[in-house]
Amino acid sequence: MGQDDERPDEAGSDPRLRALGERLAEARRDRQEPESDAPRSSGLSGFGQAMKVGSEFVAGVIVGFVIGYTIDRLFGTGPWGMIVFLLLGFAAGTLNVMRATGVAKDPFAAKASKSSRRAPDGDK
Q: In the chain, at which residue ranges do the beta strands (DSSP E only) sit?
């Protein structure tokens, strides 16, 4: 038989293999535990994150413009509906950018996590 035909108990007793396995397990644990100070990321590359942030901001402004323009056309309020909703769209786009970059917290995610941690009514 050749050297490649080692029995599993002989391979497992090698201290070098055991040390290698421990180092691999430690590296996997370190890789799975993100630092708490680091901003949360959705796993996108830098370019992908920039495209996401830019499109969220532009979408907020465009939706505000369209709603304001529609209100102005329906009610004949001149530019006031468009101005107000354009500013609201700008604010919504800015808030979405802040949420996407981790600067502002998402209030809906906080409510969902609080409701899932809440004790059942019988356990008070």
A: none
Rounded Cα distance between 116 and 16, Å, is: 46
23-79 tens-digit pLDDT: 989 888 887 765 555 555 556 688 888 899 999 999 999 999 999 999 999 999 889
Which residues have a Cβ under 8 Å from the Cβ of 77 and sit 6 or more positions away? 71
- Determine contact, residues 89/60, Cβ cutoff 8 Å: yes
Alpha helices in the chain (DSSP H): 8-12, 15-32, 46-75, 80-101, 107-117
Give which of 80, 88, 38 is closest to 63, Cα–Cα: 88
- Is the whole model's pTM more than 0.90, yes or no? no
Cα–Cα nearest to 58, from 105, 94, 100 = 94
